[in-house]
Amino acid sequence: MTIRTLAVLATLALPMAAQAETVTLKQMEGATVHHATVDMSVYWTKGAGEAVELVAYYAAKDDAAGGKLQMALVDGDSVTFGLPGHVGQMFTFAREGDVVSVATTGTSPETLAMN
Fold first, then answer.
1. 69-106 b/e with 16+ CB inside 10 Å = b?
2. Nearest to 107 by CA among 83, 89, 80
3. Three-class SS of residue 12?
4. Which uninterrupted H or E stretch holds 5?
């Protein structure tokens, strides 16, 4: 085998990086977000005052045990964080008007350590 062939085979053998995903939700719509080792179902409803209540249930792909996130978002809010035990996976929840978006991104542990 040539070095070029070995390089191609090595590249194909590496796990593919998880693709970032974004979903946009209007009131009473639901969606699922998939990222690396976590699947998440999200929806939002009208909250107290000007806030909306976002609810997300998540679970690791290799374990049915998961968790629930619940947060109030007012217009212009945006929050980004990771989940316990899932290093390198970040989730951003943002509200603009009557729309809430949920985005996933991957990041290196070194970047997380600097924050």
1. eebebeeebeeeeebeeeebbbbebbbeeeebebbbbe
2. 89
3. helix
4. helix 3-13
Q: How far apart are CA 60 and CA 16, in angstroms?
A: 18
Cα separation of 55 and 69, whole Å? 6
**Can you read off the two tokens belonging to residue 81?**
């964080």
- Cα→Cα distances 15→18, 33, 53, Å: 9, 20, 36
Q: What's the predicted TM-score (pTM) here?
A: 0.73
Indicate the residue type of 115.
N
For the chain, what are the domain ranges? 18-114
Question: Is the pLDDT score of 4 beyond 90?
Answer: no
In the predicted model, is pLDDT for residue 17 greater than 70? no
